[in-house]
Structures are given as C-alpha cells and as structure tokens.
Give the backbone structure.
Amino acid sequence: MKLFAVGPVEMYPETMEIGGKQVPYFRNEEFSQVVLHTMDMLKESVNAPEGSEAIMLACSGTGAMEAAVMNCFSESDKVLVIDGGSFGHRFVELCQIHNIPYTPLAVDRGETLTRNMLEQATGEEKFTGLLVNIHETSTGQLYDKQMLSDFCKERELFFAVDAISSYLADELDMCRYGIDLVIASSQKALALAPGLSMIVASPNALQRAENSTQKTMYFDFRSYISNGKRGQTPFTPSIRVMYELEDRLTRIYEKGVDKVISETAEIAEDFRKKIREIGLSFPDYPLSNFETPVIFPENSADAYEVFLQLEKEYGFVVNPNGGDLASVQFRVGHIGNHSIEDNDMLVDAIRQIMDK
Ligand SMILES: *Cc1c(COP(=O)(O)O)cnc(C)c1O
C-alpha cells in the first residue's frame, strides 16, 4: 500500500519508529524542553514576527480552525471568508456557529480568485478580518498570498490563514505577507500521525485572544500561552505526535525548509508533466505543490473507476473527488515520503488501467 493521498500521507521510517515507542510521562522538564524546541522551530519555519507564540492543540485541523475563529473574532467583527470549496465553507459554518458577522466570497469551479472579487465582495463596508484556506484542498487552488496580503494591509484586516495543506509544500512567510495567524496540522505535509494541530499567533492575534469574550475551556488560547511559556499545555497533549514533530522539524531544518518545499515542487511538476503525456490534464488556476487534481477528458476512463482499481490492483491510494466531479477527477498528493520514481509507478498504473 502506498498513499498518494492528501492526508494522512506516506510517513517516513523515523516517524514510524517513534510511533512504536511507549508514550512517556509529560509533566516534567524533559518534555517541556521538547515542546519549547518544537515551538521555536515551528515559529521560525513560518518566519513569525517577534513576540509570536505557538499553540499546540490535541485535535484535528478543524479544531484549530474553530479555536482560531473563537479566539480572534467576536460579534463586533466583520469577516470576509473565502468560500472556495469544502474547507472554505467550514470557515463559513464556524462564523455562523459562533455568531461572527461575515460575508462569504464564493469562488466558482475553475475560477481564479482575484483582487476584483475581493473588492466586489466587500464594497464600501468596513471589514475587520479575512479568513482563508491559502490552499483550498478540495480544489487544489493556491490563492495569491501577495494579493491577499496587500488587500489586508490596505484595509487593516486581521489576516488569518489556514495553511494546513500548504505549510511545507508552498512558501509561507508571516512577516513578508503580514499574516496574523497561521494554522498547521500533523497529518498533511509534515507526514505525521493525525491528532496534533498547531497555531502560530502573532502579537496581533495574541492581543485579540487576550480580549476574547467567547466561552470555551478547551480552546482558550490564554491558558495555552501561559502554559506554553514553560513548555507545557493545559491538557494532555498528543504526546507521541509531539515527539514525531520534534524529530521531523529537526530533520527538515537539517535539510532546509526551502529545500523541502522545492523538492515537493519538483515532484509536483514532474507528475503534471507525466500525466499530460498520457492525455490527462489539471486545472489552469494556480495550484499548490501539495497536490494535483487529475482531470480525465470526455470519453476516456471514469476517474472513480480508476481510483478504485489503483487501490485494488496496485495498492496506490489517491483521493477521489465527491459529487458530480467524481467520474472526471481525482486528486494526487505530492507530500510525505515520495520520490520521482513513485510518480513513474503511479502514472504507469493509471495508464495501464486506462488502456484496459
Ligand atoms: C485537512 C485540512 C483541514 C483539517 O481537516 P481535519 O480533518 O479536521 O484534520 C483543514 N483545512 C484544510 C485546508 C485542510 O486541507
């Protein structure tokens, strides 16, 4: 079995070794040092501004999205939500649940998000924040960070970025783009087990959290910040995944964050070139290095059938698309323990199934 999925993804042998060990006790100095070291690497990996803090949550990525919405926005905000797919829509639902005034900006299928669309959606009204999944995993579109950054700076919007499926696959720099909050999660490009989500909060975000009036115990950033200063969390963390994360980030630093991203870009470009050669295509809006939506032309194989056969005959797992796209498209992840040779094997298998 080989995972070409978008999460969980193909893990590294070192990570799996950590996964096989006894989980240690954690309210001690040894674990605190692991956490502090991890938090430092995490902040540095996104070039967080001076005074930022990392928050380690024992939940899946959606929990971190909810925590971010609850701690950084209130009923007196007005948030623009990029509603460009199922993850964007999750932010819409979170704003509804937590009574945050918002306007959704729908990105239609195949459409590229533009500055003009931002202007149209906001008009003359005063907005206070922007919520975006910088790579909308359900479509593969990577939104233009510079464009969103300029818009947020000009209008003084709090810029909150779900980078769960972009962190370590595409460049990300909080200082450069004026990003106020970044969300990442363990099971995507980090290639760890699920269950750990991370937020890097800028001083702006910390100030919003400090003044938050939302009622929550588990997601109250204030207790994560005060405990985090000594390398601890208010509740039992995903201890094993924290060890996996420290190991992974240490290895990523040895190689260089930029190199990790450029290698993923190479694998993605190579894959896109090879599927073109067998008559398949991909969307023409900007794509993340994280994944490729593979489009089957009319009168060729049924994408869902190919997805089933890939798993059954070859043990290769890709992500089927839902709804009316199921028969024409599936998605292939490029993150995790993958090589150019894996691309060859996968493209070869797709070709063989199509030729049948
Ligand atoms: C995977 C993902 C999430 C988190 O999903 P969970 O199933 O809750 O881990 C959130 N946002 C994006 C963009 C994702 O790709």
The longest helix spans residues 257-277. The chain has a mean pLDDT of 97. The CA atoms of residues 10 and 132 lie 26 Å apart. Residues 7, 60-62, 65, 87, 133, 137, 162, 164-165, 185, 188 surround pyridoxal-5'-phosphate (CB under 6 Å).
